[in-house]
Amino acid sequence: MAAIFKWNIMKKITIAIDGYSSCGKSTMAKDLAREIGYIYIDSGAMYRAVTLYCLDNNLFTEEGIDTESLKKAMPDIRISFLLDKDTQRPITCLNGQPVEDRIRSMEVSSRVSPVAALDFVREALVKQQQEMGKAKGIVMDGRDIGTVVFPDAELKIFVTASAEIRAQRRYDELKAKGQDASYEDILNNVKERDYIDQNRAVSPLRQAEDAILLDNSQLTIEEQKRWLAEQFQRVVHG
Ligand code: DC
Predict the structure, then answer these.
(1) pLDDT tens, 66-94?
(2) Global pTM?
(3) pLDDT band at residue 9, thresholds of 50, 70 and 90?
(4) Ligand 1 centroid distance, CA of 197 (Å)
(5) Which residues of 202-226 are buried (b: 16+ CB within 10 A; e: fewer)?
(6) In angstroms, what is the span from residue 220 Cα to ligand 1's centroid?
(7) Which residues contact ligand 1 via a Cβ below 6 A?
């Protein structure tokens, strides 16, 4: 009996959290990983880092992305994560250089979608993500984690909230940072990103058949945290 109990405590699983943009996936994934001592990987940050590489190396041309040069460069693009000792937040590094702030800029945000739609970019990043999750004990968030990266993940969550609520949250966030923002513009951007994510040819955003749907439109962060912790306990302890 004691042995089984111990095995349950030790058993590491893989947790895939997918969903729409700006629905708080990263916050919930990061918090859960910290609480249960798992590695947290923000797969969106990896697509953002490749986009930053393209910007820094002039791979965005008048005609679009210089895919030939990017394809050649892919083996030399190394993405890693450091943990900030003070904030306990992950810092994304591109070829050893911390780029966390730069990958969150509007310049990167507005160019990342076409980069994330390139099949050879996805192939390379999915491979790296699967390598990172080999030993389990990982929480990864993104768009295709439960469907493509870890189809065998023991716990899969698909997060959504209404476009209006997500836009309002983004608006409040920007206002709190003292940045000028138009609710209408943000709402249009949220809807546009939903459309691109759901309709791209390679790995479009969709809920895995065995994922649990979480609509957090009416949940506080605390309620959402509790809900997720319950799902984890249920899978690990049965
Ligand atoms: O979650 P995010 O906004 O940081 O994601 C940035 C971009 O990368 C966004 O266009 C969606 C895309 N993405 C993806 O295609 N697959 C993933 N697993 C994660 C993000």
Answers:
(1) 999 999 999 999 999 998 888 878 999 99
(2) 0.91
(3) low
(4) 8
(5) ebebebbeebbebebeebeeeebbe
(6) 24
(7) 21, 43-44, 47-48, 112-113, 116, 142-145, 197
